[in-house]
Design brief:
The protein is an alpha+beta fold. The protein has 2 domains: about 180 residues, D-amino Acid Aminotransferase, Chain A, domain 1; about 170 residues, D-amino Acid Aminotransferase, Chain A, domain 2 (Alpha-Beta Barrel). It contains 8 helices and 20 strands. It binds 2-OXO-4-methylpentanoic acid (COI). The site of 2-OXO-4-methylpentanoic acid has 6 residues, from loops.
Amino acid sequence: MALALFDDRDGFVWFDGKPGPTPIAITRTTEPKVRPVDDELRFGSAFTDHMFRMDYTEGRGWHDPRILPYQPFSLDPATSVLHYAQSVFDGLKAYRGQDGVIRFFRAATHAARLNRSCGYLCIPALDPELVLQSFHALVGVDQAWVPSKRGTSLYLRPAVIASEAFLGVHPAKSYTYFLILSPVGPYYAEGINPVKILATDTHVRAVQGGLGAAKTAANYAASIFAAEEAQKQGYTQVLWLDGVEHKYLDEVGTMNIMVKIGDEIVTPPLTGSILAGVTRDSILTLCRDWGMKASERRISIDEVMAAARNGTLSEMWGTGTAAVVSPVGELGYKGERVTINDGKTGPLTQKLYDAIIGIQYGETGDAHGWTTPLQALRAAGGESAARKG
Ligand code: COI
């Protein structure tokens, strides 16, 4: 597997050297930034030198995929995304292994989920192949930004926003797809140490039939108030209960949730109110590979609290791209606080974290083919030169 060779300064590249559906134009920055050192990386505050952008116009479809120096958008104040939040995003990571290879984790699954999210928001579908090309092309251009310290990675944030300047509420006639990259460390200040979560029966994130399964800004906006309240009480995140009965576990602020009660691993099913987490799916798969009973079923907060009291709730953890596998050491509900595994990371949580991290960094076997190495990108030669002229 060859890494990208860029001899296409300010030109076009094709994905993997083969002419793809659309060439990607590259304009390189003339003012490269200073890269943060791996030891200082936090989540989502540093951004690389370049971004990817592509536009949609009614009648023309998606057009002009291009890589540009990282830069602000100029938006009309009437742009519909600013008023009605017609937007979706996703998040995935690229890891630099000790062998120097940069690997994406489940990139095609993320591209497919981005398109599913588009569907919920009446945003025109993207060509998943072109989305994958945007990942490879931009990470290829900014590959020096992929950190190498264990626990760090390059976070990719693809997003689509409605860009039409119009104050009526309707699906916009124009959109922008963009991709930005951020070298990141742990999502939580706690790192891999256990977080504290508060189950709320007063606030609701989403209901079945709503937007809960879409990765869209509105769900995160809906989470902010309750998260602030939880933080004032010393918790890291909110554990959302279902929006109808306020009884069954849904998900945690930025993660899916899993519990181990006795020999059973339980996580809420995908019934439309929670996000179909890619890490959630990976962890369920690993548990089943290991012969464990991993159930996707409704589980009430009363069942979890009772299991905590009678000692059968041995572990609880969240899963997410940003957080990976995050142990939960304390759970609060209706004024009661229970400690899980003495507030320490449980053995299964640690084993799952180690297993998934091992796959992501290319250190262990990848039985399910979840990782893809960064593809070689080459200039399109004569055809590219012709297009340049
Ligand atoms: C992710 O895990 O990728 C997320 O999208 C969480 C994010 C909102 C920080």
